[in-house]
Design goal:
Elements lengths: L1 H12 L10 H51 L2 H19 L6 H20 L4 H18 L11
Helix pairs in contact: 2-3, 2-5, 3-4, 4-5
């Protein structure tokens, strides 16, 4: 009996440390979720800072090209006046330094000259008609299918 008492006493006297470790599966899952969230956050920042403004710019260019195409096809005074205002506004934005796209600026100048010719004498010189038609086709190929960003994007 004395032996059993000495065994319980020695068991109580020795301190035991409890060791806890993170399971490898939980640790790996936490790292993967963190990397995924970081990637989605960076994607959102890129979309907000670069993607959506580019999409807005391309949608505006599509609207201008459609307006110029309509004005040159119909040669209606109202359509020509609206297209002239749109091209002049876009050229003003170019000059103000908001955009630095030389081919687009040249396209706006060609369209503006063609629209002014239509407004002045209801016809376009053949050379100017060829240039404006070619630039319209290029613009419609580039911007024809562009959608405006949704309202919730901004």
């Amino acid at each position: 009996m004395t032996e059993s008492t000495s065994q319980t006493t020695s068991a109580v006297e020795t301190p035991q440390t409890i060791v806890a470790r993170v399971a490898p599966a939980w640790w790996i899952r936490s790292v993967l979720v963190s990397v995924l969230m970081l990637g989605l956050g960076l994607w959102g920042l890129y979309d907000y800072a670069i993607g959506i403004p580019e999409q807005e710019q391309m949608a505006q260019r599509r609207q201008i090209a459609e307006g110029v195409k309509l004005a040159l096809e119909q040669r209606a005074p109202e359509a020509v006046e609206l297209a002239l205002i749109a091209t002049a506004t876009a050229q003003t934005a170019e000059v103000a330094g908001q955009e630095h796209d030389l081919p687009w600026n040249e396209t706006l100048m060609v369209w503006n000259a063609a629209l002014q010719s239509v407004a002045a004498n209801r016809q376009i010189p053949p050379e100017l008609m060829l240039q404006s038609g070619t630039r319209l086709e290029e613009a419609m190929e580039l911007y024809g299918d562009v959608q405006e960003p949704a309202a919730y994007d901004r």
